[in-house]
Each structure stands twice: as structure tokens, then as C-alpha cells.
Amino acid sequence: MADAECVAIAKAVTAALNAGAFSKTFTAARSYADWDEELADDDGDLHVDVVVSQTGAEDQLATRGSAALSTPIDIGVRKKLGTTEQDESTGRIETSEVDDLQKLVEELRVFFLGSALTGYTGAKWKSSNPRLTFNRRHLREHRQFTAIIRVVFDSRVLI
Q1: Computed from CA positions of residues 123, 125, 129, 130, in that sequence, does the dihedral angle turn out positive or negative?
Q2: Read out DSSP for 17-72?
Q3: For the chain, domain boundaries
Q4: Among 59-73, 100-114, 135-149, which is the least confidently predicted range?
Q5: Contacts of 63 (CB under 8 A, 6+ apart)
Q6: Residues 144, 44 contacting (CB under 8 angstroms)
Q7: How far apart are CA 81 and CA 86, in angstroms?
Q8: pLDDT digits over 3-45, tens only?
Q9: What is the C-alpha to C-alpha distance for residues 13 and 10, in angstroms, rounded to an integer?
């Protein structure tokens, strides 16, 4: 049985991210978003989640036999920060560590810009927008960087 269009696109986004070259090393994983929660690990791993989002999806009839789908995909970036990333005098997370993570978020925002989705040529990039540049509460309360980028792809399916 074939995947739902949104799942096929999410799988292709995950594969494209894992094949890409970025300023930080990570392995993207497709999931169903648990990024509201604190990361349990203290290993300092960078977590990049690819999640199908139906919020903001815009579908319309393209022809009598096909529909034009707009599929939003959220890319979550999370990292638990330890005491090595902390300023000893203030107790705050080092600005440079958050700056490096913001650089990655920007790279992810522009990664798909203006191109067909490699591995799934039926989907074309439509837009990229930050949903959350970083979560201040997570940074303050959990010592965790959390950001979410939404990338929207257009495709057509037979109906």
C-alpha cells in the first residue's frame, strides 16, 4: 500500500536533510512531535524531527481528476545544553552556543528554497517560515534549545 502524500513528502524531507551538509551534525528522524516536552537525555545530541502538520494545509481541486495539495512539514531542532555551555559568572547559556544553533535553523529554512524535493519529485517547495526561532521557556527552565521551521510543499494527487 502506498503512503499518504504527506507521509511520502515527510520521508523525502527526512532523507534530504540526512543527505545535506550543515554547520552541525545530526540525523533527522520522522516523528509525530513531542517537542513540547523536555529532552530526557543529557548527552548533548542534536535532535532534528520531521513532522507532518495539517495545520495550514491548503487543498484545492486542480482538474476533474486531481487535487492540488499544500503539505506543511515542521522541522524541529532540539538540543539539551549542559554546564559546559553555561557562563560561569551569570549561569546563563553561552550566547555563542545559541548563535550556532540559530545558524543551523537558518540553514534549514533555506535548504529547500525554490527546488523540487529530491527523492520525491512530485513535491515542489512553496515556502519556508520559522514557527518558533527558539523557545525562551525551554532555554530558561530546561536548558534546552527548541526551534521549529515550517516548510510547505505543493503536490498533486489523483482523486
Answers
A1: positive
A2: HHHS--SS---EEE----TTSPP---S--EEEEEEE--TT---EEEETTEEEEEEE
A3: 5-35+45-158
A4: 59-73
A5: none
A6: no
A7: 8
A8: 889 999 999 999 999 999 999 999 999 998 777 778 876 677 8
A9: 5
Buried b / exposed e over 117-140, threshold 16 CB at 10 Å, is: beebebbbbbebeeebebbeebbe
Q: CATH homologous superfamily for 5-35+45-158?
A: Phage tail protein-like (3.30.2000.10)
In this prediction the pTM is 0.89
Tell which residue, 127, 115, 123, 124, has the closest CA to residue 152: 127
C-alpha cell at position 124: 515542489
pLDDT of residue 42: 65
Residue 159 predicted with pLDDT over 80: no
Assigned C-alpha cell, 40: 530526557
Scanning the structure block, which residue is given the C-alpha cell 533527522?
Answer: 28
pLDDT tens track for 100-118: 999 999 999 999 998 778 8
- Please choose, from the candidates 136, 116, 107, 134, the residue with its C-alpha nearest in 3D space to the C-alpha of residue 26: 107
